[in-house]
TrEMBL record:
<keyword id="KW-0560">Oxidoreductase</keyword>
<keyword id="KW-0479">Metal-binding</keyword>
<protein>
    <submittedName>
        <fullName>Cytochrome P450</fullName>
    </submittedName>
</protein>
<dbReference type="InterPro" id="IPR050121">
    <property type="entry name" value="Cytochrome_P450_monoxygenase"/>
</dbReference>
<keyword id="KW-0349">Heme</keyword>
<dbReference type="GO" id="GO:0004497">
    <property type="term" value="F:monooxygenase activity"/>
</dbReference>
<dbReference type="InterPro" id="IPR036396">
    <property type="entry name" value="Cyt_P450_sf"/>
</dbReference>
<comment type="similarity">
    <text>Belongs to the cytochrome P450 family.</text>
</comment>
<dbReference type="GO" id="GO:0005506">
    <property type="term" value="F:iron ion binding"/>
</dbReference>
<dbReference type="GO" id="GO:0016705">
    <property type="term" value="F:oxidoreductase activity, acting on paired donors, with incorporation or reduction of molecular oxygen"/>
</dbReference>
<keyword id="KW-0503">Monooxygenase</keyword>
<feature type="binding site" description="axial binding residue">
    <location>
        <position position="405"/>
    </location>
    <ligand>
        <name>heme</name>
    </ligand>
</feature>
<dbReference type="InterPro" id="IPR017972">
    <property type="entry name" value="Cyt_P450_CS"/>
</dbReference>
<dbReference type="InterPro" id="IPR001128">
    <property type="entry name" value="Cyt_P450"/>
</dbReference>
<dbReference type="InterPro" id="IPR002401">
    <property type="entry name" value="Cyt_P450_E_grp-I"/>
</dbReference>
<dbReference type="Pfam" id="PF00067">
    <property type="entry name" value="p450"/>
</dbReference>
<dbReference type="GO" id="GO:0020037">
    <property type="term" value="F:heme binding"/>
</dbReference>
Length: 458
């Protein structure tokens, strides 16, 4: 029997989430939203399906009901557009990339980019991902016995994967400068400005955002410079090299600005989310030895050396289930937010125009009447008949509807390859004074570096 592990959660809650915030609650609510928005949820939120409330005169609706979620994000997706607070956090960096563009701009970009993410084209990147991961595994073997910050290590590894698959390790990209910029941006982004929380107009200056603007401008210059040089370079067919994502984007008919926007979107969405998910997964495995032992045995028994790494998930069902369960407990996108354009009815409740619809995957993935032992790490729930019985739209690690994550297949393939390459050669064991707790930023981040001791296997 698997050893069942329940990871720690953040403290709850500063607000009941039902009705109207009292003025005396405002400061506490603001502080929690900037410190860790997960703290605004109480235990009762894991049992309710719908919770309307008002804050500073603005209506919001917390939605934990799968059918209601389907209505807002699929059936009536045209009526529920990007949430202003979400846009205020992401749009300065991503501009009109797929995560933030709307209307005709989004439709045109999605249509142009979709052929880049066909299964065949995504699978073609598997050997490159494997090579980066094998190099990382060798580096981890070389530090046998040392304790490292795994959170940072996974950020570096996934950034290496993306630089290789996006740019083929292009020498025109200053990797050290680019990596430093990404790290800086992650440190200062994702914390909502008080003016945005209060829904003040965007033309009012946000004090203290000068540093992030400078970092963003430098990252955009670097990426656009690489794209401009690539346009002048011989094509993959002419040079005999395999095409990377940049080649595919340049061939998709997008202009230079759109190419830059979407490259940065892929970096932000495909790097930070995957890195955090891998760090959480390694932490969970270290706290559940039975689950870890079964995963190591599966990897050891699989004949991976002579097979296409794009097919590894078929040979490693337990490994894939571990990843899915990690994404349930620690969803990389902890909040899906939309705003209604027109009056609507959601699960029998009237929803006026300009109502914020909030789907917290942190709550949804732990709903008491959907999941058995919702706070426990149990990968077997994703195997066989149990996996098939999970209700539609109750599990949303990559979103849903027309704006479902276009890189979901790439992300799952990458995480399987990373775990297979690393864990057949090394083991990671938690080595910190206290377990990490999740903090909601753009992604769900650990509140410490997740220190883990690396030991060579065998």
């Amino acid at each position: 029997m698997n050893q069942v592990f329940q990871p720690p959660k953040p403290p709850y809650a500063v607000y009941s989430g039902v009705g109207k915030l009292r003025p005396s609650d405002y400061w506490t609510y603001f502080r929690a939203m900037r410190r860790n928005p997960l703290e605004v949820w109480g235990e009762h939120h894991f049992s309710i399906r719908l919770a309307p409330f008002r804050f500073l005169g603005r209506s919001s609706l917390i939605v934990n009901d799968p059918d209601a979620i389907h209505h807002c994000f699929v059936t009536r997706s045209d009526n529920f557009t990007m949430n202003p607070l979400r846009q205020a956090v992401l749009k300065p960096f991503l501009r009109d990339g797929l995560l933030t563009a709307e209307g005709e701009t989004w439709s045109k970009a999605r249509k142009a980019v979709s052929p880049v993410f066909t299964p065949r084209k995504v699978n073609a990147f598997a050997p490159q991902i494997r090579q980066v991961c094998e190099d990382a595994a060798a580096a981890f073997e070389a530090i046998d016995g040392r304790t490292i910050p795994v959170s940072d290590a996974m950020v570096d590894l996934t950034l290496d994967v993306l630089i290789e698959t996006l740019f083929s390790g292009d020498e025109a990209l200053d990797k050290a400068r680019f990596t430093a910029g990404i790290h800086q941006l992650l440190e200062i982004s994702g914390i909502p400005h008080p003016f945005d929380l209060a829904h003040l107009p965007g033309w009012i200056p946000r004090i203290g955002q000068g540093k992030s603007r400078r970092v963003i401008a430098d990252l955009r210059r670097q990426v656009s410079g690489v794209a401009a040089q690539r346009r002048k370079a011989p094509s993959p067919e002419e040079s005999g090299r395999a095409p990377d994502f940049l080649d595919l984007l340049l061939g998709a008919g997008l202009d230079d600005t759109a190419v830059t926007d979407n490259l940065l979107t892929f970096l932000a969405a495909g790097h930070e989310t995957t890195a955090r998910s891998l760090a959480w997964t390694l932490y969970l495995l270290s706290r559940a030895p039975d689950v870890r032992d079964r995963l190591e045995a599966e990897i050891d028994a699989a004949a991976l050396d002579d097979t296409d790494p794009a097919t590894w998930s078929q040979a490693l069902p337990w490994t894939e289930a571990v990843i899915k369960e990690s994404l349930r407990l620690y969803p990389s996108a902890p909040m899906l937010a939309r705003t209604s354009r027109e009056w609507d009815i959601v699960a029998g409740l009237p929803v006026p125009a300009r109502t914020d619809v909030l789907v917290s995957t942190w709550l949804l993935h732990r709903q008491r009447d959907i999941w058995a032992e919702p706070d426990s790490f149990r990968p077997e729930r994703f195997l066989g008949e149990a996996g098939k019985a999970i209700p539609r739209d109750a599990y949303l690690p990559f979103g849903l509807g027309p704006r479902v994550c276009i890189g979901a297949r790439f992300a799952m393939m990458e995480m399987v390859i990373v775990l297979a390459c690393l864990l057949r050669r090394v083991r990671f064991e938690f080595d910190g004074p206290r377990d990490p707790r999740p903090v909601m930023r753009i992604t769900l981040q650990p509140d410490n570096e997740v220190p883990m001791r690396v030991s060579r296997r065998g």
